[in-house]
Amino acid sequence: MATMALLRSRVSSFGALCCGRRDISFFSNTSASNWSKVVSDAEKIVGYPTSFMSLRCLLSDELSNVAMHVRKLVGTKHPLLNTARGFVYDSKNSLQMRGLVVLLMSKAAGPSTAAADLLQQDMVSGIYPSQRNLAEITELIHTAFLVHRGIVNLKEWTTSDGPLKDMQFGNKMAVLSGDFLLANACTGLAQLNNTKVVELISSAIGDLVQGIYYENSSSAEGNSPSDDVTLASWEEQTFLSHGALLAKSCQAAMELAKHDKQAQGIAFQYGKHMSLGHKMNSDLQPFVKGSYGDPVSFSLNSAPVVLHRHVVGVESWVLQLQQATTLGRQVDYTKLWRTIKAGKGVTMATDLCRNHGNKALEAIRFFPPSEARSALENLASAVTKF
Amino acid sequence: MSAARPPRVDTPLLHYAIPFPAEGNMAPPWRHCCRWTAGNIGVPSFINAVCGAVMMVARREGAVASLGVRGIAGTKATFANRPVNQPASRISNTLLRSNFRLLNTTQNVCCFKNLHSDAKVKDPFMLAQKDLKNLYDDIKKEMFVSKSELKALCEYYFDGKGKALRPMIVVLMARACNLHSNREGDLLPGQRSIAMISEMIHTASLVHDDVIDGSDKRRGKTTINEVWGEKKAILAGDFILSVASMALARIGDTTVVTVLSQVIEDLVRGEFMQLGSKENENERFKHYLEKTFKKTASLIANSCKAVSILVNPDPEVHEIAFQYGRNVGIAFQLVDDVLDFTSCANHLGKPSAADLRLGLATGPVLFACQQFPELHAMIMRRFSSHGDVERAWQYVMESDGVRQTNYLAQRYCQEAVRQISKLRPSAERQALIQLTELILTRDK
Predict the structure, then answer these.
(1) Span A27-381: which CATH code?
(2) Does residue B5 fall inside a structural domain?
(3) Which of A357, B176, B313, B371 could be bridged to A277 by S-S, CB 3.0 to 4.6 A?
(4) Residue A210: which of B150, B248, B250 has the nearest Cβ?
């Protein structure tokens, strides 16, 4: 009870930051309710949700310290503020989707015959404690990079955006809290007592960094439209930034239960295609939902745009981009949106999304039928629906 | 050294958590000379306690000399990483007057020279050289990155221009432990990896620290954040850490993974500790030493422990390695904190009094605060008012803060020497002893 009271006070110190509603739902309204149902059904299967390690972090002195300091950022434009809001308000928006998939995968694979030294009675809802810890570590790493993604380049900050001092302070908090989460992930990993898993997850962290690094550089200077992004390199980068962590965590969950290489491969494939499908789906949202009246915004690196570029070729793309650019050098996204919608990019991206969803489904069919497997299938199917 | 000695004063019984591993608490009344100024007489404050603590060590050194090499009897908790502050020891009748000249390094050596004579003294740098020769190249080989710019960022500080102090200590400790364990001195592959990992973890933390502190210079180079921006700097630090963590896993020893993962946690917790100031003066000093352990010494201590684990199953050996690293690490940082006041700007590769500018009260300031209570308010507001930095610097210079911090560093080094002397004699062991002198006498 004392813990809950403490938690409430800590959460409210984050909650105090929230001056506006944040809506980052990945899915349009109709599919969102479908997704929520799939997720909440899946959570029941794994016994209890994944948030225990995150809870421990949230309750730590260090993070409550940050929460206190982050209050000072209210009213500034530092991205950490939005990320912090997300800790409290986005719990329904599949923030912990990765942990959930790891748990479902662990359960779907079941106990291994080779795992003589693992005690079956330690399992809760068919999941080993180490696998639960892994699921939490996966979430910690994901969250750490949400925080580190929000670091601001101070030289790009102009005084009209607000005082530089606030940004410096926000950066300091973001570096520290991201590092804190990563450090907890490291000690958590060490406690799994499996160096193969440590290596695998560490490599996933490296992948994630490389993916985010690419994301950054291509959204800043790399947006030079003349760069011909090949589909293969784009998929590779997207795997690094959005797929590697889940794929490798799923694989590691198999390793923890001493499942063989084949099972590890299946888990990896599911995690990889599931995340890529998920990413495609969210990239497609601005193009599949909504009427013409809504203000549109999308990343020029999102799947439909990249595919569109690929189809029309570099020259036409440069031209289209010029046509959509106003005199003030601002890109008129509504105009560009119409151009892209008229092309084949959106259909191709939708096909690709379905393709990833299907590959995830194919992979998971190697496991025996079970409630957990069905839940994984439902998740994979939900990703292909718009 | 002032010729005029302040009067002798007996201070009351002290209860203070001391920063040294306390083996016993039967400290006999023992008089020790420590220079003290009249203004502070009778104030039972942390300086008294620190000097008292230091006495404990001196006393135990005497014990070591007479007992010879002895195990750390009764210390069952050797596996756990010890917190910096050990249970309080009672020190009675401390007389705080000191002649620092008496505490020179010959005294350091005299307490164990009668145990055994080590092989011919070699420069620690020379002795570790063959193991460190390709260190930076090997680190670069660990970092496979497709993106060339990220690669450039990650390799930026592995240019061979750093002191490579951590790898050097690790390598020497590994060899000393190997010889202690009846083996050849040559490094095991895992030990060599730990030398690399220690430098990588250190570098990753520097990169992040520079963003946190907004530094634009490091080792005479423009910092990564200054050249490429904060976003990329943070990612580069994260990447180096992930590579270090992979290399660590590949050693294949779960205990070693646990020991070095603790370092990563300590580094972050140490950084968090720097955010706050303590109102209470005793707590403030304790806080400072604990922060120093976490931010600097933990990496050295746990790397030393890790290389000992790989060759010797005896927890007592692990503890010796850990304690050597811990004491040397804290001494190193204390000297660093002194140099921040005494070294001129271009020498250290960063501007002097940088810590004050960052709002940090280090050893010299904390000691100076004893003589100049005016500093207290400045410490609490983290030197944020106009002119605080200059005033504080002036106070420190007029106080004994610098000397007292140096003195404390000396005592930590003596404890390090006492610890390492429990290992079998070897050229590497001697080099580790010699290293403590180099740490104390370095001027950059």
Answers:
(1) 1.10.600.10
(2) no
(3) A357
(4) B150
